[in-house]
């Protein structure tokens, strides 16, 4: 691809929050609008919160039936994971076999060296006393579980629950301002934003899918809604690639005849 010293720079784009790690842009060949592709890393202060938002959205879209909180969870991720796994296994042994979870750990606000697990559940109703006894037997504190009542409120609540992911990170700006809290959140969760058991994610038609498939379906839906006919004019280009050279490259790829002096 040819380069052009006058190609648009990041400063010329209308978006104020751009992934600082990205090496490529998405360029609209018709309008010239461009913005950086995301690096998609959870550790990136622009992409991390966006990842959290998409995960929370995909979780809410799965329409879980209940919200839950586990307390007195260890702050070491491996220990926390083991305890929570034991709780789920014990519940399965007790007959609660249909029990899919998605959760994130959040540091205990009291400042003790403990965490809470905030999550959402699909499956069989688990009475509070049963859950409490199983948690107690596995070294966890008093849990909370409740039905998500109405669909609209449930959706909001689901996002809020999944949104332990939002701890201090409601936006990329927040993530930068609360860098320590965001880093701690990720460390507490083993570098991930959310955890889920197999079968948790569902599409609007009820089909059970992986988290990746749920998010791809969501993104496809959003892109179809927003771009409509324009979908085909977006192209991934290098930072230095100008609009004219991107257009010419596209034409070459398509095999369309071009003039002798395209630039
Ligand atoms: Zn990024």
What does this structure look like?
- By secondary structure, the protein is of the alpha+beta class.
- The chain folds into 2 domains: 68 residues, no CATH class; 177 residues.
- 38% of the residues lie in helices and 18% in strands.
- It has 8 helices and 8 strands, in the order E-E-H-E-H-E-E-H-E-H-H-H-E-H-E-H.
- The strands form 2 sheets. Strands 6-3-5-4-7 form a 5-stranded antiparallel β-sheet, sandwiched between helices.
- It starts with 23 loop residues before the first strand and ends in a 9-residue tail after the last helix.
- The N terminus and C terminus are likely disordered.
- Zinc ion binds next to loops.
Give the structure's gist in a few sentences.
The protein has 263 residues and is an alpha+beta fold. The chain is built from eight helices and eight strands; from the N terminus they run ββαβαββαβαααβαβα. A five-stranded antiparallel β-sheet has the order 6-3-5-4-7, sandwiched between helices.
